[in-house]
């Protein structure tokens, strides 16, 4: 069941895919902050009201201001993405727009709800009672998570298309609800939402870790590090479990993608897990192999058969030297963040304090970068691993791209827009970070510069 549209040149395809990758890779970082940051901010505000600690209240106010900036910039990049879906991929939207239109429409509703309550939350801080103001933040959290769910469910449909039939070359019997709640939706949306909390938590904590490395060991920076880091550290083990669930789903439903993820060219039993290496002439070279690992992880048995790339023509192979390193990078960053979380958890359990070494803060300052790298690598696996299909097994990417000439100039224009957005966003956030935090009671410090508990 393959539907074809007008062909496009290879240059058109490369330009469109590169532009979409840039837009998605840029926007997804802001989207993650938009999902995770409101919850972290509300926890800080709630703790401030409950304990009376001015440091919590100052953190909540400053994070809320940054949240407003990031939401505004994310709205711009999200709008660009929505236009790109129609302009770059008319073959997809023209044929399947009626199938996947529902989650996009519902995401629009969630976006407006989030925008309305974010405005109330930011501008009514001193005009509402503490409890009422705190309650206005709850719809922001709900709408942010819902927005992520709806958008990712549309992408999940592209991995596991359902909710329609094809008769005489036309899409019929459309069921938008079945399309939105396809088999890939549960693992993929859960994986994405947890990733958002990891990016937000480790990212915010990393900023305060840098401040602590520069000698700012006041309560403001200490709490600014501990609160978001704890949220991310709690989510990380759950993310690894969900990641295993998602990988098993891929093994059962997208075996060629799994073969690309592992650089497996030949079908076999008792297949080892390959770490590292590059594909050369139909063979993965230089990899570290863990005996029986892939069979065990994919199907729960050491002698289980794992499908290789030899089961489909080479024209249907994803680019292994992109997908395989990206998968290894995602897993590696996830394991590193788990170890970093365990380091803090072990020390806190023993001493109720941070690890008394600057190496921990150095590692923590890179936690946000590691989370973003894992996020981008994961999306690379998801999207590039689906190639050459834009709708898995149904429509090829080359058949969906806009065949109009000159797409490369559109990419140049969009690239320039993102450069301006990046510079402006960094400038504004740096200006916000230079505001002096509210003074707190002086603390006694040990010889290493850490506050005495």
Topology at a glance:
Layout: H1 10-51, H2 54-88, H3 90-123, H4 130-136, H5 138-159, E1 165-167, E2 170-172, H6 176-180, H7 185-213, H8 219-253, H9 255-262, E3 268-269, E4 273-275, E5 278-279, E6 284-285, E7 288-290, H10 293-299, E8 305-306, H11 320-351, H12 358-365, H13 367-384, E9 389-391, E10 395-396, H14 397-400, H15 407-433
Antiparallel strand pairs: 1-2, 3-8, 4-7, 5-6, 9-10
Helix pairs in contact: 1-2, 1-5, 1-7, 1-15, 2-3, 2-8, 2-15, 3-5, 5-7, 7-8, 7-12, 7-13, 8-9, 8-11, 9-11, 11-13
What features would you describe in this structure?
- Keywords: Cell membrane, Electron transport, Heme, Iron, Membrane, Metal-binding, Oxidoreductase, Transmembrane, Transmembrane helix, Transport.
- By secondary structure, the protein is mainly alpha-helical.
- The protein has a domain at 1-176 and 397-437.
- It contains 15 helices and ten strands.
- The strands form five sheets. Strands 1-2 form a two-stranded antiparallel ribbon. Strands 3-8 form a two-stranded antiparallel sheet.
- Strand 9 and strand 10 form a beta hairpin.
- The model is unreliable at 1-6 and 438-453 (pLDDT under 50).
Global outline: globular
Number of helices: 15
Helix and strand string, N-terminal first? HHHHHEEHHHHEEEEEHEHHHEEHH
What percent of residues are in strands?
A: 5-15%
* Mean of all residue-level pLDDT scores: 86
Cα gyration radius (Å): 24 Å
Report the uncertain regions: 1-6, 438-453
Give the helix proportion (percent range).
Answer: 55-70%
**Strands of the biggest beta sheet: in what spatial order?**
1-2
Distance between the termini: 66 Å
Tell me about the largest β-sheet: 2 strands, antiparallel
Decide which structural class fits the backbone: mainly alpha
Q: Care to count the β-strands?
A: 10
EC number: 1.10.3.-
Transmembrane segments: 20-43, 63-83, 95-122, 134-158, 192-211, 223-242, 326-347, 359-379, 407-429
Main location: membrane
Keywords: Cell membrane, Electron transport, Heme, Iron, Membrane, Metal-binding, Oxidoreductase, Transmembrane, Transmembrane helix, Transport
């Amino acid at each position: 069941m393959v539907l074809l549209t007008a062909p496009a040149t290879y240059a058109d395809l490369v330009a469109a895919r590169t532009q979409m990758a840039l837009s998605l890779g840029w926007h997804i970082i802001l989207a993650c902050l938009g999902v995770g940051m409101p919850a972290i901010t509300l926890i800080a505000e709630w703790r401030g009201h409950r304990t009376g600690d001015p440091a919590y209240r100052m953190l909540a106010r400053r994070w809320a201001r940054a949240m407003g900036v990031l939401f505004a910039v994310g709205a711009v990049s999200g709008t660009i993405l929505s236009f790109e879906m129609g302009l770059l991929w008319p073959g997809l939207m023209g044929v399947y727009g009626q199938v996947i239109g529902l989650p996009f429409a519902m995401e629009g509703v969630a976006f407006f709800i989030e925008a309305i309550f974010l405005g109330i939350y930011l501008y009514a801080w001193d005009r509402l009672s503490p409890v009422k103001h705190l309650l206005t933040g709850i719809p922001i959290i709900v709408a942010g998570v819902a927005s992520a769910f709806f958008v990712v469910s549309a992408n999940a449909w592209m991995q596991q298309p359902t909710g329609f039939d094809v008769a005489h070359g036309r899409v019929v019997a459309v069921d938008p609800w079945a399309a939105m709640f396809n088999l890939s939706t549960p693992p993929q949306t859960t994986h994405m939402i947890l990733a958002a909390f990891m990016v937000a938590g480790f990212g915010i904590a990393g900023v305060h870790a840098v401040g602590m490395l520069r000698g700012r060991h006041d309560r403001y920076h200490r709490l600014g590090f501990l609160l978001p880091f704890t949220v991310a550290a709690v989510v990380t083990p759950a993310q690894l479990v969900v990641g295993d669930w998602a990988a098993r789903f891929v093994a059962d439903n997208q075996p060629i993608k799994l073969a690309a993820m592992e650089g497996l060219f030949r079908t076999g039993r008792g297949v080892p897990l390959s770490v590292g290496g590059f594909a050369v002439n139909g063979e993965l070279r230089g990899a570290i192999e863990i005996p029986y690992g892939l069979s065990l992880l994919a199907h729960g048995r050491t002698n289980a058969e794992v499908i290789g790339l030899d089961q489909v023509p080479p024209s249907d192979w994803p680019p292994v030297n992109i997908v395989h390193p990206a998968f290894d990078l995602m897993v590696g960053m996830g394991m590193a963040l788990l170890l970093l979380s365990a380091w803090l958890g072990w020390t806190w359990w023993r001493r109720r304090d941070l690890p008394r070494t600057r190496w921990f803060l150095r590692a923590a300052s890179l936690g946000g970068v590691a989370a973003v790298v894992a996020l981008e690598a994961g999306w690379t696996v998801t999207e590039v691993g689906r190639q050459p299909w834009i709708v898995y097994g149904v429509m090829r990417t080359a058949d969906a791209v806009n065949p109009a000439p000159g797409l490369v100039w559109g990419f140049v224009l969009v690239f320039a827009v993102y450069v301006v957005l990046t510079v402006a966003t960094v400038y504004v956030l740096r200006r916000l970070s230079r505001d002096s935090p509210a003074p707190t009671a002086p603390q006694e410090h040990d010889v290493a510069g850490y506050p005495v508990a």
